[in-house]
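Proteins fold. Shown next:

***
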Amino acid sequence: MDTQDTIADTQNVIDLLVAEGFDAAWYETTYRDEIARHGLEGESPLDFYRRLGGFLGHDPHDGFSEILYRKKNTDVRKNLTQASGETGFRHWLEFGVNETGRHPFTKSQINLARQTYLALDRRFLEKTYGARMAGYPTVVDYYFSQVTQEELSPSAEFSESGYRDLYEDVTIAIGENLIASGFQHFLLVQTKEVRHVISHDQYLKSLAEKKSAEQEAETRLALEDNLPGVTALAALDMLNAMEFYGGKVKVRRTEAQGPGGLLVLVPDFLPEILFGGYLAFYGFLRKLSEQTGIGLRLMVINHSSMEKHEGNLLRMRIKMPKIYNMFHGFQKFDAQTRAVEIPANYHVISYCAELHRIAQKIAASANQKPIFFIQEYEPDFHANTDMRSFNESAFFLPHDAVYNSHKLIEFFQKKTPVFERAGKDYRYTAIENQLVRLNVGKDRFVEMNSGRETRRFIMYGRPEGHAARNHFGMLVYALREAIRQGVFAGEDWEFYALGTLGKIDDIDLGGSEKLRMVPKMPKEDYEEFLLTGDIGLSVITTPHPGIVHFQMAAYGLPTVTNKTDLRNDAWLAKQNRNLIPVEMSPETLVEGFRVAVKRAKDLNTRYDNAIASPVMDEESCLRDALADLAAIVTK
């Protein structure tokens, strides 16, 4: 007998096995609708299954799942075509039955997959996802393989993404691999629970409405709408603000929740402002919750509407899910009712001075002190106005404090009466800010920087009004003057300003030079960009010691920064000898640039200074503060 005869005999045997395993009555009942649509006159259920049904994903009997078999065994799925007559069931009979792990599915998994299959709208799937299904024999195969990751809707009436957004427990169950999709969850509970659904088009429309504006315009409008008065405050605005933040608060303590927790008060919750202080704040709270098991609830306190608040929550959930998912609940402070609900065993923490007055009233309802996360001496954010005095006095209200750096503690101790008024029982602690150490060897560093024909000047440049402490205008003025004086002559230089909230036009520096304005970027991209720099520039004239200039210096950039009486030459040199301290004036900045140009050529010293600088990892930066705060919130 030749090989062809052997193959033919084998196929005949498999055909017989398929027929023997095929349950015609069950099959005709289960797939009656598709048989009615696609069957031929006089065609038996078995013939229909062989001709088309098996390829479509039909099961031959109640105990086998064709679609799950194809999903798990991609080698089988890739070889299926309607013309071949092959199915997962045939493969199972010929090969899979003797191979480990080919069909490990439980009866409940098989039944759920079949229930899902029968509920799918194949026409909708082909119309909506047909262009994506290359490499899959049918759009149903594509759906089952990708629904978990791509949130594919099963029909026009049911939005997979919309259902997951509505029900957090469903998203959790999917993440834990208990179910494959929100649609499967709906099928399982539809007769037991009342669960609402949203149509596919309705969900897309809701997202489109919130993303209709171009990204650049969205950023600017969001800031204007959500940060009223960020560039200028009138007297009436300040009066209204003091009434809003200083008025009475109606606090209702509800039933205790778990091991306790924190009600977190913030002025805004939107993705456009998540940098610097906000990232430090949320990062600290996440670690605290992870280590102690306490819950976190967020309350946004501003004048915006509930509609706008919900829109911001949606944008946070989409753009910043890691931060959004930290919180177990959200509240919006109502300026009319001024009502706050907080579990009996929760403490309260405020993000800034304005909110500290509300925090103090909430904490007093349980004879507690609020926790004040002090990131800066906030009166310096204001001119000599009512709001400066209002914020300054907030620091004298009772509180336990978490300071953003020990250097900031030194300022409050030496330059303000806060510690004196708080007395000897004042409880305070501090975090430090993590710096990333230069992660290339010396030879590589020298090689990267010695062969470039164009040098790169990188400054921290934020021209928006709320970043006035970084003195964008004076830095650009001094840079123009340095160019006019020929400080950068003799070499080809590029000038960059990093950190704007949105894209703006480059700024003329004189002659052919331009200052290229670069919006804030992800941390990894920012660190990669620093590796390409030759000189850094970053200043801050409020009491916080800053972060950017230290990171620039830690990456080997001779970095011009300003000094103060507490941030003096000796202290800055101890932090990093790549720092070039100057007084805050155009003339001294220009002289600082001259020094930086000379130092930029000494690559060995730049590297040695970078490596020698003290750099703290995240654990070291937060350890003491986490322990101190845990002792307060877990009592």
